[in-house]
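Hi, here's the filled form for the chain we discussed.

Project: internal
Contact: R.S.
Residues: 207
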Amino acid sequence: MNIFPYRVRFSKTGKMRFLSHHDVLRMFERALRRTGLPLRMTEGYNPHPILSFPTALGLGIESLDEVMEFELSTWTAPRAILQQLGAQLPDGFAVTGVEAFARQARSFVDFVEYEADAPGQGGGVADRIRDFLGRAEARIERKSDKGTKTVEIRQYVIGLEAEGEKIFLRIRVTDAGTAKPEEVLRTIGIEPARARVRKTYTEVGTR
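And the returned structure, exactly as it came back:
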């Protein structure tokens, strides 16, 4: 059986930033079906397109560079996929690139980059960033449906800097975990609820 994997890069902006990861998955499934492309499907009574997301975006965060991967049963030019899939996406989503890749290689996200506009919160942030980067550890309390746990986030922060009221972050993603941008911002005295956070880049590698 012929299997042709493709990696799609797309943006998610505006009101669509409040769409959950599960809803984004379902949206892409429906959009792919409407393209008429020769999709590879799961087996069983309720087949659906074979697709995956190497990483999930936090709710409420815009992204200029998200990644989705799917498979076709016959080769199709990436440019044609970009045009056909892009035409099926709702406002707030846009396909920015499509590329074929080797199926034998497992995709993983190495790091992601964010920028945050923090109006009225720029005072003294450069000093707080220097303090944060000089630490060996930075422990925070992370809450979830399963309870609260302590997480050390300094190990995941590769880069952090400020230009006026704009903050730039580069955060490592590992199998063991990662740091959320809002956790890093809070640690340097920026209130995420008063900032506009967007992902600007996703570095994808293969193993």
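Let me know if anything looks off before we file it.
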